[in-house]
């Protein structure tokens, strides 16, 4: 069983290496396809959202307070508040909901 985990780690390392190196070696000229350009433009944002949104709901004691803070943060940010104001208001929402409920 101990030898299998080394094989798994080696395979994961090779897959990760190939994913990062193959685009650099295969694509040497500028990408002219508009769809591919827009897809690659949004990849970092989607990756960040996929990692962040589940953590918001699971970081609190109850998922309801995390989701309420997320919705409050979206509304406050949409109204033009700064990052500090959004973060502080979300923290206050979570604190109040978990304190009283």
Number of helices: 4
Q: Output the radius of gyration.
A: 21 Å
- Beta-strand percent range: under 5%
**Mean pLDDT value:** 89
- Structural shape: flat
Which structural class do you get from the secondary structure elements? mainly alpha
What does the main sheet amount to? none
Straight-line distance between termini: 47 Å
- Please trace the helix and strand order, writing H or E for each element: HHHH
Q: Give a count of the beta strands, DSSP E runs of length 2 or more.
A: 0
Oligomeric state of the chains in view? single chain
Give the helix proportion (percent range): over 70%
Which spans of ≥5 residues are poorly predicted at pLDDT below 50? none
Describe the structure.
The chain is mainly alpha-helical and 101 residues long. It is built from four helices and no strands. It has helices at residues 2-26, 34-58, 63-78, 83-100. Helix 2 (34-58) crosses helix 3. The termini are far apart.
Task: Sum this structure up briefly.
The protein is mainly α. Helices cover 83% and strands 0% of the residues. The model has no long low-confidence stretch (mean pLDDT 89).
Notable features of this structure?
single chain, 101 residues, mainly alpha, 4 helices, 83% helix, flat
Write the layout of secondary structure elements.
Layout: H1 2-26, H2 34-58, H3 63-78, H4 83-100
């Amino acid at each position: 069983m101990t030898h299998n985990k080394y094989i798994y780690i080696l395979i994961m390392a090779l897959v990760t290496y190939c994913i990062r190196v193959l685009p650099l070696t295969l694509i040497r000229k500028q990408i002219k396809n508009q769809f591919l350009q827009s897809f690659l433009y949004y990849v970092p944002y989607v990756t960040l959202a996929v990692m962040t949104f589940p953590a918001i709901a699971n970081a609190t004691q109850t998922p309801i307070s995390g989701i309420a803070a997320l919705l409050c943060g979206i509304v406050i940010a949409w109204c033009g508040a700064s990052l500090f104001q959004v973060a502080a208001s979300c923290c206050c929402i979570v604190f109040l909901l978990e304190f009283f409920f």
